[in-house]
Amino acid sequence: MKQAIPPDPGTVELSPAEMIRYNRHVRLSQIGREGQRKLKAASALIVGLGGLGSPISMYLAAAGVGRIGLVDGDVVDASNLQRQIVHGESVIGMPKVKSAAARLRELNPYIVVEPYYVPLTCDNAPDLLASYDVVMDGLDNFGARCILNEAAVSLGKPYVYGSVAYFEGQVSVFGVRDGPCYRCLLPAPPPDLAPGEAAPGIFSVLPGTIGTLQANEALKLLLGIGELLVGQLLVYDALDMTFDLITLPRRPDCPVCGDRSTTAGPDENTQP
Ligand SMILES: [Zn+2]
Question: Per-residue confidence at 191, pLDDT binned at 50, 70, 90?
Fold first, then answer.
C-alpha cells in the first residue's frame, strides 16, 4: 500500500548545502530533488527515545525529515547505553529528549527538532500527535502503545509500530485506512508481559535492526514509494536469523478500529 504524506512540498526548497548533503538521495530516481523536498516538508513524532527511538531518530534526521518531535519523560540511565545509542556516557541523568535533540541537531542542522519532556498520556497524546505526518513507536509496554494507537487511529495518523524483547522483534504499519491497528494485533495485554513484570532482557543490536526497519517504512510512507507493511507483521528472530511475514488483517471486532468502536477511523487526508 502506498501513501504520500505530505503530497505537495509546496514552496519548500533545498539550499545548495542541502543538495550536497542529500546528494546520494537525490541521485535515486525514486527520490530525486522532488522527494527530498517532500522529506524536508514532512514531520515525524517519535514517542520513546530508547533502543528503538535511537536509530529511528538518527536515520530520520540524517535523511532530512524537516521537523522531528521527540516525546519521552525519562532520563538517561547507565543501563540504557548497551542499546540506546543516541545517548552517551556524558548525558547520564539528562532527559532523553534533551540528549537526543542535541545529537540530532549535531547530525543535521538543517532540520527542526522539537523535544517534549513528558510521558505520553491519554490527555496529552492527541495534542502531541496532531501536527505531525507520521508517528513512530519507540515504546516498551502495552499500556503506552494503547494510548499511542488510539490517538493515532482517532486522528487518522499512520503509526509505525516496532517492539523488541529478548532476541525477537516485530514491525508493522498501523493507522492506515482499511489496515489494522495495534489492538487488532493485541486485543488484550500479552500474558508474558503483564503490568508489573520485570523488564525482559534485550539483545543489544536487536532494537537497532527493528528501529532501522521502522525508519525505512516511515521514509517510504513520507515519500510515497515502495510497499508498506500494512496488513502485515514482520517478525524477526535474531538468533535464528529469520524474517517471517505474517498476514495481519483488520479485525471487525477490534476495540479501537473495529466496526463498533467509538474511535473514529483514519479519514481521507491520509490517502494519496
Ligand atoms: Zn484495530
Answer: confident
229 contacts 247 by C-beta, under 8 angstroms? no
- The lowest-confidence range among 35-39, 195-199, 206-210 is 195-199
Task: Give just the sign of the alpha carbon dihedral 270, 213, 22, 58.
Answer: positive
Does a structural domain hold residue 248? yes
**CA–centroid distance for 38 within its chain:** 18
* 29 vs 263 pLDDT, higher one: 29
d(CA 230, ligand 1 centre) in Å: 12
Instruction: Report the Cα–Cα distance between both ends of the chain, in Å, rounded.
Output: 10
Q: Please give the tally of structural domains in the chain.
A: 2
Same domain, 27 and 108: no
Distance CA(68)–CA(61), nearest Å, equals 7
| CATH number, domain containing residue 192 | 3.40.50.720
List CB-based neighbours of ion ligand 1 within 5 Å: 181, 183-184, 254, 256-257
* Crossing angle for the helix pair 96-107 and 53-63, to the nearest 10 degrees: 30
Tell how far the Cα of 257 is from the centroid of ligand 1, in angstroms: 4
196 — pLDDT class (breaks 50, 70, 90): low
Are residues 103 and 31 part of one domain? no
pLDDT confidence band for 1 (50 / 70 / 90) = low
Q: Please report whether residue 5 resides in a domain.
A: no
71 and 194 belong to one structural domain: yes
Same domain for 25 and 46, yes or no, is no
By residue range, what is the domain housing residue 50? 42-262
pLDDT score of 177: 83
